[in-house]
Amino acid sequence: MKKTDTASRGIALEILQSVLRKKQPFDDVMARHQAFAALEKRDRAFVHALVALVLRRLGQVDGVIKTCLNQKQELKASVHDILRLGVAQLLFLGTPAHAAVDTSVELAAAQNPTRPYKGLINAIMRRLTREGAQMIEKQDAARLNIPDWLWLSWRQAYGTARARNIAEAHLGEALMDISVKEDSAAWAKKLDAQLLPTGSLRLSPTMAVTELEGFAEGAWWVQDAAAALPVLLMGDIKGKSVFDLCAAPGGKAAQLACAGAQVTAVDRSAKRLERMKENFARLHLEAEIICLDALKFKPAEKADFVLLDAPCSATGTMRRHPDVQRIKTIEDVERM
Predict the structure, then answer these.
(1) How many domains does the chain have?
(2) pLDDT digits (tens, 9 = 90+) for 113-132
(3) b/e per residue, 184-206, with b = 16+ CB within 10 A?
C-alpha cells in the first residue's frame, strides 16, 4: 500500500470529522484544508468522493457497523469515523477489499488513541467483505439515510410515497449547473456540458470543481439553473442599480454584475462575504459589498431593482451538498 493512499484517507478522516463532529460545512472545510489542497488531482477527487459518499449514505454505513458490534459495545468517535470511511469504500465506492481493509487498519495504527482498536477494525472490515453486500441488500436505503426529523417533515408535507421518491433521488450525486460569463455554447463544448434553454450549463463533474477548465480563469461560477432565473426575469439591467439583499455567496450578484448592473450586495455574514469577495476577484467582477443585516440597510438613494433571496434551511440543495442533512437540525429550520 502506497503512503499516499493512507495519507489521502487520513485527510478524508479529518474532513469527515470536521463535518460530523464540529458541524462545519463540507465545502468550507475542504477550501481551507492545506493538506487537501496539496494532494495530487486524482487524490483530491478521491477524498471528495469518499467523504461525500459517507455523508450521503451515513445511515446505511452506520447500520452495518452496528450489526457487527455487540449490543452493549460503543465505539470511540475516531474509531467510528475510520470504520465509516472503510465501509463506504468497501460497500459503495468499489474500492478493492484488501485496500479498504488495510488502509482502515493503518489509519487506526497511525494514532495513539485508535491504535488499540486495530484488531476490532480489522475484524469488522473482514466480516463485511464476506457479508456486507447481503446486509446492504436488506436495508431500506431511502429511509435509513435521511434524518428522522427531515423524513417526518417530508412525509407530512408530501405523503409517504413522494417522501420516499425524494429520499431515493438524494442517494445519487447531483449534476452540476454553472453560469458562464460569455459564450455559453463554446463552454458547453469545452466542458462536455448540456446547454439549457435558460443559458445555464449542466454537467456531471468527474473531478473537483476547482480542477475544471475555466474555473481558475474566472470564466464561470457554480449556480443552480433555477437560482439563475430571477435575474433573467429582470430583463436588460445594464447600467441599472440593484440592491442584492442576503447576497452571499454571490451567485445572483455575479449574474447582475456580469450583465452590467451596478450591484450593492448586502449580507450579515462576514464569513460568507469573504467567500463572495474571493469569487468576485476570481471572476474579475465588481460590486459594493456591505456586511450588514438587510433589515438595518438604509441606502441614501433608491435602486432600480431590489433582489431578495431570503435565508432558508438549504435542505433543497442536499443532493449537491450532502452535509446539509448532517449539520442541520429541526431547530435550525424552526428558527427561520
Answers:
(1) 3
(2) 999 999 999 999 999 999 99
(3) beebbeebebebeeeebbbbebe
